[in-house]
Amino acid sequence: MIPVTSSIRLDESEIEARFIRSPGSGGQKVNKTESAVQLRFNARKSPSLSNAVFLRLKPLAGRRMTKDGVIVITANRFRTQEQNRRDAMDRLVALIRKAAVRPKHRRATKPTKGSKRRRLDSKRRQGDIKKTRRKVTED
Predict the structure, then answer these.
(1) For residues 92 and 90, what is the distance between their CA atoms, to the nearest angstrom?
(2) The CATH number of domain 2-100, selected from 3.40.1060.10, 3.30.160.20, 2.40.160.20, 3.30.70.100
(3) Burial of 19 (0-12, 13-18, 19+ CB in 10 A)
(4) What is the tens place of the pLDDT at every residue in 44-55?
């Protein structure tokens, strides 16, 4: 079990890891080693995620989530499979952890009388300053 939050734990069988060849420049072993990892996690069918967490996860994942609700994370920052697997797993956990936080409900409030007065006074002062910058005309 992979702990995400105190209430969310992912089962390792839910995450599928495939190793692929890492893109980009490399050395002599570049066409022989498969050091990049591609993690696939089916968030829609995961029993550990509630529907609310899934709905918040969808926009956070963006292009990394397929239409079927599968999150695909590719990691190729490091040279070894183990480091890339750990990196991809950390990114997945961070993404789910961010989606698990319930957004704070915003209550609409009105500005106070004092704040309105201060804003209008400031606008008036600024207007007076701009008036002094005009051309001097003889009356």
Answers:
(1) 5
(2) 3.30.160.20
(3) middle
(4) 878 788 888 888
Burial class (CB in 10 A: 0-12, 13-18, 19+), 58: middle
* Contact criterion met (CB below 8 Å) for 91 and 84: no
Q: Residue count of the chain, please give it.
A: 139
Give the type of residue at 135.
Answer: K
Per-residue pLDDT tens digits for 88-107: 888 888 888 888 888 889 99
- At 73 the three-state DSSP class reads strand
> CA 21, 41, 33: angle at the middle one, nearest 5?
15
